[in-house]
Amino acid sequence: MRSAYDVIIKPVITERSTADTAEGKYTFAVAKNATKTEIRQACEKLFNVRVLKVNTQNVSGKKKRVNRSEGKTPDWKKAVVTIDLDPQETTYLVEGGQEKKTNKKYKNTIEEFGFGL
Questions:
Q1: Which residues neighbour 86 within 8 Å (Cβ) at sequence distance 6 or greater?
Q2: Is the residue at 111 inside a domain?
Q3: In this structure, is the dihedral angle defined by the CA atoms of residues 80, 85, 89 and 95, taken in order, positive or negative?
Q4: Residue 113 lies inside a defined structural domain of this protein
Q5: Vertex 80, ends 77 and 85: CA angle to 5°?
Q6: pLDDT at 117 (0 to 100)
Q7: What is the rounded CA–CA span in Å between residue 53 and residue 6?
Q8: Quick one: pLDDT band at residue 106, thresholds 50, 70, 90?
Q9: How far apart (Å, rounded) are the C-alpha atoms in residues 93 and 40?
Q10: Domain with 62 in it
């Protein structure tokens, strides 16, 4: 199993991704072979939030040219993570039919979204 820091590489900060943070959607560049489950677990571990949905997209690199030499920027993977803006304590049944509440408190924003950028 990979570390959460290996799955999430950096935030993608654009005009659209900044506007989407009001709706609870955060955009990250992630490892190319990361699955949605790994991305969900990494976000919940790193930022202490409840993830509702993960959408991924493989982004192909662009062709670049400098003078006569041509090249290509690397391909990368983007993930849009939707978090729960109103996290509630969840209850579940234990042995004997008693209800038990979770003690875990979730945040409703990701303050470290810029990672100091």
A1: 108
A2: no
A3: negative
A4: no
A5: 160
A6: 39
A7: 20
A8: confident
A9: 25
A10: 4-104
The tokens of 24 are what? 């609870």
Contact partners, residue 96, CB within 8 Å, separation at least 6: none
- The CATH number assigned to the domain holding 73 equals 3.30.70.330
Tokens at 81, concatenated: 């993570």
Residue 99 binned pLDDT confidence (cut-offs 50, 70, 90): confident
Predicted TM-score (pTM) of the model is 0.79
Q: What percentage of the chain's residues is helix, strand, coil (to nearest 5)?
A: 25, 35, 40
Q: Using CA atoms, how far apart are residues 80 and 6, in angstroms rounded to an integer?
A: 17
Residue 88 or residue 45, greater confidence: 45
Q: Which amino acid is at 21?
A: T
pLDDT in tens, 17-36: 999 999 999 999 999 999 99
- 115, two tokens: 């990672």
